[in-house]
UniProtKB/TrEMBL annotation, chain A:
One of its GO terms (biological process) is transmembrane transport. Pfam families: SBP_bac_1. Residues 1-24 form the signal peptide. Transmembrane segments: none annotated. InterPro entries: Bact_solute-bd_prot1, SBP, SBP_1_CS. Belongs to the bacterial solute-binding protein 1 family. Gene3D superfamilies: Periplasmic binding protein-like II (3.40.190.10). Keywords: Signal, Transport. This is Carbohydrate ABC transporter substrate-binding protein. It comes from the Bacteria.
TrEMBL record, chain B:
It comes from the Bacteria. Belongs to the binding-protein-dependent transport system permease family. It comes from Anaeromonas frigoriresistens. This is Sugar ABC transporter permease. CDD domains: TM_PBP2. It is a multi-pass membrane protein.
Length: 454, 287
């Protein structure tokens, strides 16, 4: 008996120790990639690249797998180059992980930055990409956030747009014509009409779960503090560079912003106890909200398509985007911008740098690369020359429709003082819902924070 | 004695080296960074003197986080140790399922804090809400959306997780009490409560020192559960010290200021736990 216990204890210790080692090692093996397949007959991309190894450290989890496939294809065309991809998801986590990566001495060759503040912080590690072929093909405005003194430092991932995503079928069944919704007052009356129909039970047969018009996730301060506020502040600043340079914020359209926030709160399931909105998160709003037809409109962007599609393909097909109107400003548009950029490390070896530039160029301008960008990553391309490749998802098409019609406003939240949108304004909005501050206090507190954080 | 001297460096050396490398040296580097404007990217930060410390002390949110953490620590030290001790008393009764119960009570301790945080977030926001709507108890609805429910949510989560661990410590202490003492008290006519009050509690006091120390320092250093359960929300009112420091560093990109806060944090936790150890030690009785 004693003996067997000893054996057991030893086995447990062995197990624990070995998992520790395995855990430590798996990090190295994870990004070990297959040897490049050398294909003698491949055509190559013209210029022969020197022997090089490109280390990519990127943050978009959704494309990690497809990006690997794209890299394998690039390797097949360029047998001298080996591409290693490592992915760390999430906003804060990526920034922290990237810092750790640079601190540890394993500097990646290609990494991501988010906007003017990042460009300033990382300036000593950014390669000037102004001479790359894609610069000329970039859509209007997509490079402004990463251009300093006429030098372009980064390639946009994609363009994304957000607005009031709504369920077309619910509106049709309620007899509301969305073509009439062009400004704030028409939106408000449509919302009121829909609300009264939901409360009267008119839609209960077709949509048994439908309980309110909106779901507003005040817990996700990026939705409130960054995205909602951007609708008002993009009327005040012309671009993210403008907001990045601003010492003060005036909230010229503060009333319009209040109206948008109140509208989403007043017609949510928690209209009577708004403090509870502070516990509503992304999953409640998207996965358990719009995807289950529990609500009819949410403020979100085209990135939710994949998630909704996984839950209910029919609902995903019914989605479209309504403008987010600020009364008395540009009312029929949605905010469109670039979420993240690719950059090349200035301090990498020359051969690696050349290969890195070639890879980005291949991914966004070659036919094969474009195919990946649009059909595998589901990106809305930030460059011209994608005419024959249409986005396949309903929300991507909607964003493209707004972009082509010129009904867009810029994403100026990229230029907010670091942390201001989420940790100052977003938190103030939570306090506003909890009844801790009035709207006037919210505005003055947020203004004071802006000046303090600049 | 000679042998001792010869072997000392061989046994202590490797551990000392590791300790120096992963604790002492990083701490000294960290203290250095707290006097600079380091942003985590360049390794040539500017020396700014005690500016970061002034900022840390004038940071309202840091003060709020300190208060919140302190009140959380006080409450959870009580709940964790009382529940843990209660469980220990329960499973040291000669019951058939004692061993089974011990594993069950210890189990939560084996689950990672992040996962626990998300599991309990689901229980609080979804489970409680549906119970509330079934029975019409409105106090069960909207959990984690107010400061008070966020606070008690954290207390419940931590008590649930840590009590099992404390239970193990108390079981060991209770079992080491000689039966003769218990029997003697029974012969003297002590009832259950008197036995607990005058025999068991004094003899378990050393375990209480350890238990309170562990739960106190763990409550102060709490991070994962806080991040996963409330994320500091609503409006940063349930943000604890470690989370505040993390956000200063990686959301605000002020690593120097965060480092200064961390030094203040380290000193505060050290002072509080050492004081606690000193006073608890005094109460212990030798057998």
């Amino acid at each position: 008996m004693k003996r067997s216990k000893k054996v057991l204890a030893l086995a447990v210790i062995f197990l624990l120790v070995s998992t520790m080692f395995l855990g430590a090692c798996s990090n190295d093996t994870a990004d070990d990639t297959k040897e490049p397949q050398t294909d003698e007959n491949s055509e190559g991309t013209g210029d022969e690249l020197a022997e090089a190894e490109v280390d990519i450290f990127q943050f978009k989890v959704e494309i990690a797998e497809k990006l690997q496939e794209a890299a394998r294809e690039f390797e097949a065309e360029n047998p001298n180059v080996k591409v290693n991809i490592e992915t760390v998801g999430g906003g804060d986590d990526y920034g922290a992980a990237l810092r750790a990566k640079f601190q540890s001495g394993q500097e990646p060759d290609i990494y991501n930055v988010g906007g003017p503040q990042d460009v300033e912080d990382w300036m000593s590690k950014l390669e000037d990409l102004s001479d790359e072929p894609w610069v000329d093909q970039a859509l209007d405005g997509v490079l402004s956030g990463v251009t300093v003194e006429d030098k372009v430092y980064a390639l946009p991932f994609a363009i994304e747009g957000y607005g009031f995503i709504y369920n077309k079928a619910i509106f049709e069944d309620a007899g509301i014509d969305v073509a009439d919704i062009k400004d704030y007052s028409s939106l408000e009356s449509a919302v009121k009409e829909l609300d009264s129909k939901i409360k009267a039970g008119d839609l209960e047969d077709d949509y048994p779960l439908l309980e309110a018009v909106f779901s507003y996730p005040a817990k996700e301060t990026w939705v409130t503090g960054l995205h909602t506020s951007n609708v008002a502040l993009s009327q005040e600043f012309d671009s993210s560079l403008d907001s990045f340079d601003a010492d003060k914020v005036a909230f010229e359209h503060g009333d319009g912003l209040k109206a948008l926030i109140d509208l989403q709160a007043d017609y949510s399931p928690y209209a009577d106890s708004k403090a509870k909105l502070n516990a509503v998160d992304y999953a409640t709003q998207v996965d358990e909200g719009i995807a289950l037809e529990r609500v009819a409109i949410i403020q979100q962007g085209n990135w939710i398509y994949g998630g909704v599609n996984d839950i209910d393909e029919n609902v995903a097909q019914k989605l479209d985007i309504l403008p987010m109107p600020i009364a008395g400003a540009k009312e029929d548009s949605i905010p469109v911008g670039v979420p993240m950029y690719w950059t090349v490390n200035k301090n990498s070896e020359d051969a690696d740098k050349a290969a890195s530039k070639a890879f980005l160029n291949w991914l966004y301008t070659s036919e094969k690369g474009k195919e990946y960008v649009v059909n595998e990553f589901f990106f809305i391309p930030p460059l011209k020359g994608y005419d024959n490749l249409e986005p396949k998802d309903s929300l991507g098409q909607a964003v493209k429709r707004y972009a082509e019609a010129g009904k867009t406003t810029p994403w100026v939240f990229m230029g907010y003082p670091t942390g201001w949108g989420m940790d100052a304004l977003g938190v103030e909005i939570q306090k506003y819902f909890a009844g801790e501050v009035t709207w006037e206090e919210l505005i003055s507190n947020s203004q004071a924070k802006w000046e303090e954080m600049r | 004695m000679n042998n001792y001297k010869k072997w000392f460096p061989i046994f202590v050396g490797p551990i000392l080296l590791a300790f120096l490398m992963v604790v002492i040296i990083p701490m000294i580097v960290g203290i250095y960074f707290s006097f600079t404007d380091w942003n985590g990217i360049t390794n040539t930060p500017n020396w700014v003197g005690i500016e970061n410390y002034i900022k840390a002390f004038s940071d309202e949110k840091f003060g709020d986080a300190f208060k919140f953490t302190a009140s959380f620590a006080v409450v959870s030290v009580f709940t964790i140790n009382i529940i843990g001790f209660g469980l220990a008393l329960l499973v040291t009764k000669k019951m058939k399922i004692s061993n089974f119960l011990r594993s069950i009570f210890f189990m939560p301790n084996l689950i990672g804090g992040i996962i626990l945080g998300f599991v309990w977030q689901f229980i609080f926001t979804k489970g409680f809400a549906s119970l509330g709507s079934i029975f019409g108890w409105s106090f069960l609805e909207g959990w984690l959306s107010t400061t008070a429910t966020g606070f008690w949510g954290l207390v419940i989560l931590m008590s649930w997780q840590m009590s099992g661990y404390m239970m193990i410590i108390y079981i060991a202490a209770i079992q080491s009490i000689p039966d003769s003492l218990i029997e003697a008290s029974q012969i003297d006519g002590a009832n259950g409560l008197q036995k607990l009050r005058h025999i068991i509690l004094p003899l378990v006091a050393p375990a209480f020192t350890v238990g309170i120390f562990l739960s106190l320092s763990n409550s102060f250093k709490l991070f994962d559960q806080n991040l996963a359960l409330t994320g500091g929300g609503p409006y940063d009112s349930t943000q604890m010290l470690a989370l505040n420091i993390y956000k200063t560093a990686f959301t605000m990109n002020k690593l120097g200021l965060a480092q200064a806060k961390a030094v203040v944090f380290l000193l505060a936790v050290a002072v509080i736990t050492v004081t606690q150890l000193y006073y608890s030690k005094k109460r212990e009785v030798e057998m």
